[in-house]
Each structure stands twice: as structure tokens, then as C-alpha cells.
Amino acid sequence: MTFSRLASRNLLRRKTRTALTVLGIAVSTAVLFSILSFNKGFDRGLSREIERTGIHFMVVPSGCAHEVASLVLHGAVIPKFLDTGVMDSIKRQDGVELATPILVAQLPNPAKDRIDLIYGVETALLPVIKPGWKIDGRVPSAGDEILLGDEVAKHHGVGAGGEIVYSGINKKFRVSGVVGSTGSQDDAFIYMPIATAQGVIGRPSGATAIGVKAKNPESLQKITDDLSREVPGIQIVTMNQVVSSISNLAASAKVLSLSISFIAILISAVGAMNSILTAVFERTQEIGMMRAIGASRADIFRMILGETTIISAAGGALGIFASTAGNDLIEMLVKKFMPYVPSGDMVAFEPEIAAASLAFIFIVGILSGVYPAWKASGINPIEAIKG
Question: Mean pLDDT, consecutive 10-residue segments, the chain of 387 residues?
Fold first, then answer.
């Protein structure tokens, strides 16, 4: 009988204890795999959302970089405004392909008992700055036309050709089109010409930011340096800085989640060690008899270590399977603790992460079995038989 078969039979003799030990390792593996997958999905999703903006940097009033990141990715309402007169200076810069003012504001909607979010922009440029959109209808071409995000359209129950009335400002808008679901914050906005948005909030030359796209990304440094020198009172934030800002915000949550996973792994390793060590003490006479009939210390060591190996492998595989099966639930729970999460699926099966998680758990499991195996191999056969 091989050592692996003997180890398997020994584990099956204590089914409840073995099952609980495997379950502990499975939980720690699932936690580790899910967190590593989420972190990778987070970075991938953040890069994807930055690419969707279609711009290279934002010109905003001097302030907090985190506010700018929220504006770019969430369309946040920032209580500062930029005079659109700076557009002339921006467009004069060599290397600028396009520049568009952006105005994000809140608009009370008494009829629906809610606050709508409006996004003023040069609507003709929407296909450029939002290249991934699929629009049912067309972009607004007149001052009384609006484009609805998918979520807003469903809430209002209107589609292309419909109307929305805002009694508070005595305005009626015609819906020129609806943006197909993007799974992002874009779904929650009402898009309208920048001049219309400025009129709605009473700031005829106000903008939350100026979105700029360069002809050649390699010239970004020169363009931003020239603008900073020529236009006072502005802050320029590149998309790389936005990524860095968001990553810094999420870093503490990532560290906390990884710490939790390593604590879970440590607990499961101690549990596995305790389970095998208890089994060794219970089988002292049996092991002594094996030694007496010719089993060497190395044989006993391999047999006990084999039990730990089987438990680690079974627990690791079960953990990966459980994590993959429960992706949606795990993602929902993790998102509650993150300050910002990009749209789309964050937790998905990644073969390389699964392999790394299994390898790590396997190594930890083997190490946790070394002491029980060493303890068992050191049993004196004569003393063990005597009891």
C-alpha cells in the first residue's frame, strides 16, 4: 500500500475532524483567491473606465485631486466653477486636438420627487469623449433636447421622442436619445448642451471642468506645463493622476482585505496542524507498531506529511470552486467596503491567480504538517507499544 493511500485511509477514519479541517482551509483559500481576483479586476476596471473618458487631462479650479477623480469617474457635483473663458487659452495651445467644457449639476424634479443629475457638454463631441456608447436615437442638436442615461430613462419611463418637464424652472425637454446601459455612472445622468445646462443653473459662463484631448499623448507634459504657466487659478489633472488618486483611496481597503485573508490562512494552518497532531497522539501505539515491524522514521514522516498534503489540496480546490461559484455574492460584499469600485465584474476566475492561491495554500499546509510529522517519526516503538 502506498503512503498516499495509507494517508487517505487514516483521514477517512476521522471523517468529521478531517471535513472541518478541509473546510477551514477551503474558507481561507476562497478568501485569498477572491481578494486577489478582486484587486486585479479593480485595476483592470479602473483602466477601462479611464479609457472610456476619451480625454487625456482635465482643467479644473484649484482644489483637491480626489474631487477631480470623482468628477471623471462618478460625475460628481463639485461646488467650484471655472470660467469657460479659459477655453481660448486651452485651444491656442499647440498639440490640443479638442477641448470641451463640462458642467455637472443637480436639478430638482418635483414631479418624480427626486434630484436629477445633469451633465452639460458640447454634445457634438460626445461620440469622441464617450466612444463606447450605443445610443438609441441621436445626440441632442438643439437647446431643448436631452440625452438620457439608461437608468434615468427607465426611472422616468420615457424613450427617444418622449418629453420631461421640470416645473420648478418651467422647462420642457425633448428626449433625442437614450444611452444603452454601460454598467457605470454614465447611466445616471441627463446629458444636455453646455449652454442649456449653464442656463438651468444660472451660470452662463460656468463649467465644472474642461476636458482636453491631445493630438499626441507624448506632448502632454509640454501642454500641461504651458497651461499651468499661462493660466492662473487652475489645476491640471491627467488621467494617470486620476488613476493614482483612486488607487490611493482604495489602498487601505486592499491592505485590510489582504490582512484578513492572511489571518484566515494562519488560523486554518494552525487548525490543520492541531488536527494532525491530535491524530498522531491518538495513534501513538499504532505508529509504534509500524515502527516495530520495519517502518523507518522517514516512512512515518512521509505518511503524516501525506495526510497534511491531501487536506491542503482538497481544501484549496474546494475553496477555489466555492469562490468561483459565489463570485456575485463575494463581489457585492467586497464592494461595500471599497470607497470606489469601477463598473463591470470585478471577481472572475483567473487561472494564474487560482494557481498562485493553490500553491500558496499548499505550501502553508505542508509547513503546518512538518511538526506533526516530525513528532510522529520520533515515536519510540518500544515505549509506544508499552503504552
Answer: 66 78 84 81 69 70 54 50 79 84 84 83 85 88 91 88 85 92 82 91 84 78 81 74 63 72 79 76 72 76 80 86 79 64 66 86 81 75 61
The kind and range of the H/E element at 194 are helix 194-201
Report how far residue 30's alpha carbon sits from residue 345's, in angstroms, rounded to the nearest whole number.
Answer: 17
Give residues with Cβ within 8 angstroms of 282, minimum separation 6. none
**Is the dihedral angle over the CA atoms 278, 284, 286, 291 positive or is it negative?**
positive
Cell of 194: 453646455
C-alpha cell at 371: 511538526
Contacts of residue 305, Cβ cutoff 8 Å, sequence gap at least 6: 366, 369, 370, 373
In the structure grid, which three cell numbers stand for residue 203, read together? 451660470
Cell numbers standing for residue 321: 470552486
Contacts of 278 (CB under 8 A, 6+ apart): 17
Whether residue 73 contacts residue 242, with contact meaning beta carbons closer than 8 Å, is answered with yes
Environment class of 294 (CB within 10 Å of its CB; exposed 0-12, middle 13-18, buried 19+): exposed
**Strand ranges for 55-168 from DSSP E:** 57-61, 82-83, 96-109, 114-121, 135-137, 145-148, 163-166
pTM for the full model? Answer: 0.56
- Using one digit for the tens of pLDDT, what is the confidence trace for 71-98? 444 444 455 677 777 888 888 888 888 8
